[in-house]
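QA checklist item 7 of 12: single-chain prediction sanity check.
[x] sequence parsed
[x] length recorded as 143
[x] structure emitted
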Amino acid sequence: MTLMIIVAAAAAVYGLCFLLRCATHALPIFSGLTIAAHLGAQSLLFAALAGIASGIAVHCLGHWLTRGRVPASVKICVLLSFPGAATAAGFQIGVALTEIAGIDLAWQPRLSLMTALLAGCCSWRGLVGPGQPSRTQVLPNGG
């Protein structure tokens, strides 16, 4: 029993670290899983492929909309939807951590909200942060 608690706590901490590193990808993963679950009754292979395609499409579209020339209202909607999904996932990880640790129920919402806000901030930083560094072309002979 003690080993299972230790393994569960390690998995929850790893899940939190993984979530914070990949917070920007929360919405594409949720959309892919939703499409796959909805189409799962038809064909498992079709559902998996549609889920993967949906997740990749949402991810690429979100990054293109935040970095491209689009109206400010569209950018604001995208910038609010991506951290929203990460915040929801962060809250659930916080709930799992507090339940595993056996923390008092009075502290559970506070700690879960802290992890939710942390995940949302990481997602926001991933969207509006600097993109890939531009490569400068070095011409031979200093020209």
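[x] summary fact logged: Residues 7-128 form one domain.
[ ] second reviewer sign-off
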